[in-house]
Design a protein that fits this description.
49% of the residues lie in helices and 12% in strands. 44% of the residues are buried. It has a four-stranded parallel sheet, sandwiched between helices. A three-stranded parallel sheet has the order 2-1-3, sandwiched between helices.
Length: 232
């Protein structure tokens, strides 16, 4: 049996996409029809995370993640992934006490971007994510540049994510906003690809409707987990 994947979830729509990607793409990695590794997922209420995020309590976020990690270890998971980009800011509080190893979503995205030959990446996601160092440092190790949206763009994208996407509301106006932001980063900032750095953004944006090639973080971390499981 391949290693057991543990998913530390945060928001439902993105965690579901991560789980679905592992299950539907499992046969490609394992070479057996209908096959995928054993998967367990644990999620606390998104409201518990939001309370911590609103007061800048990253240790509190880390405690929630660590508790999920402990539950997944007891369920038999061999390693962990988290499809939520924003809460990766709490990993420094988690890793020293984690019962299991983690794959880091920004490391996975950065490696994929470098492998595809991209050099200057636009970053989309929650305001907390795009204003953090979750991505810039990981991209820099691969010689890649990170471009953040403008302040006004950050606020509107953040509103769409928190008020619409995490609630399962996928509206044409939201797609148009992302297309406008990504198009500006292409035309004015010289970006050659865009990171879909929120768990839910790949549910409305893809290479099919984006002005730039996309790096769908949720799907990429799921595939990285499949690759690790298949190589074990």
């Amino acid at each position: 049996m391949p290693p057991h994947i543990g998913i530390v979830g945060c928001s439902a729509e993105g965690a579901a996409l991560c789980y679905r990607t592992i299950c539907t793409e499992g046969p490609e990695f394992l070479g057996v029809a209908h096959a995928h590794p054993e998967v367990s997922m644990h999620t606390y209420s998104l409201a518990e995370y939001v309370r911590c995020l609103d007061r800048g309590d990253w240790r509190g976020v880390g405690e929630l993640m660590l508790s999920s990690a402990d539950k997944l270890a007891k369920a038999g998971a061999d390693f962990l992934i988290c499809p939520d980009n924003t809460i990766h800011q709490a990993l420094p509080h988690v890793l020293p006490r984690s019962p299991l190893p983690w794959l880091h979503i920004a490391e996975v995205v950065a490696a994929q971007a470098a492998g595809r030959g991209f050099r200057r990446l636009g970053l989309t996601g929650t305001r907390l994510l795009v204003e953090s160092e979750v991505y810039p440092g990981k991209l820099a190790t691969h010689g890649l540049e990170c471009v953040r949206p403008s302040a006004a763009e950050r606020e509107e994208v953040n509103r769409i994510i928190m008020d619409e996407l995490v609630c399962g509301r996928f509206r044409p106006a939201a797609v148009a906003t992302f297309q406008r932001v990504i198009g500006r980063m292409r035309d004015e900032e010289g970006c050659d690809a865009v990171i879909l750095g929120c768990t839910e953004i790949p549910l409305i944006m893809s290479d099919a409707n984006s002005p730039l090639p996309t790096l769908a973080s949720t799907c990429l971390i799921a595939r990285a987990a499949l690759h690790q499981a298949a190589q074990a």
